């Protein structure tokens, strides 16, 4: 519950983490337009999930630039920042 009533439909504080689910129609926009804006806004972590090729790429923001932390796919189980304390089974992300 928010301690006050919001008067806007957006947040002015950047989140610590964002995740984009890529599609053939959005992948270019997500990578070329959104990633630099997220970095400039100070978002600490970004994940890109591509369900078509069943991959997850994780990035950390270092001084306004993205550092690739790793790439996982298929049925990998991974501990990925900023949620490294909880192992994630990628098999649950894919349909079929």
Q: What would you note in describing this structure?
A:
- This protein has 96 residues and is an alpha+beta fold.
- The protein is 16% helix and 33% strand.
- It has one helix at 27-41; strands at residues 17-21, 45-50, 55-62, 65-73, 77-78, 88-89.
- The strands form 2 sheets. Strands 1-2-3-4 form a 4-stranded mixed beta sheet, with helices on one face. It has a two-stranded antiparallel ribbon with strand order 5-6.
- Strand 1 (17-21), helix 1 and strand 2 (45-50) form a beta-alpha-beta unit.
- The protein is globular and about 40 Å long.
- The termini are far apart.
Q: Share of helix among residues? A: 10-25%
Between the first and last Cα atoms, what is the distance in angstroms?
Answer: 37 Å
DSSP strand content: 25-35%
What structural category arises from helix and sheet content?
A: alpha+beta
| Major beta-sheet overview | 4 strands, mixed
Our count of helices gives 1
Note the run of SSEs as H and E.
EHEEEEE
Question: What's the total number of strands?
Answer: 6
Low-confidence stretches: none
Which radius of gyration do the C-alpha atoms yield?
15 Å
Short account of what is shown:
With 96 residues, the protein is α+β, with helices and mostly antiparallel strands. Helices cover 16% and strands 33% of the residues.
Name the descriptors.
96 residues, alpha+beta, 4-stranded mixed sheet, two-stranded antiparallel ribbon, 1 helix, 6 strands, 16% helix
Describe the secondary-structure layout:
Layout: E1 17-21, H1 27-41, E2 45-50, E3 55-62, E4 65-73, E5 77-78, E6 88-89
Parallel strand pairs: 1-2
Antiparallel strand pairs: 2-3, 3-4, 5-6
């Amino acid at each position: 519950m928010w301690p006050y009533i919001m008067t806007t439909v957006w947040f002015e504080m950047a989140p610590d983490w964002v995740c984009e689910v890529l599609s053939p129609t959005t992948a270019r926009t997500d990578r070329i337009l959104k990633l630099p804006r997220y970095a400039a806004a100070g978002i600490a972590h970004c994940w890109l999930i591509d369900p078509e090729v069943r991959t997850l790429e994780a990035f950390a923001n270092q001084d306004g630039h993205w550092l690739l932390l790793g790439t996982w796919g298929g049925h990998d189980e991974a501990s990925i920042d900023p949620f490294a304390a909880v192992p994630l089974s990628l098999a649950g992300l894919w349909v079929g």
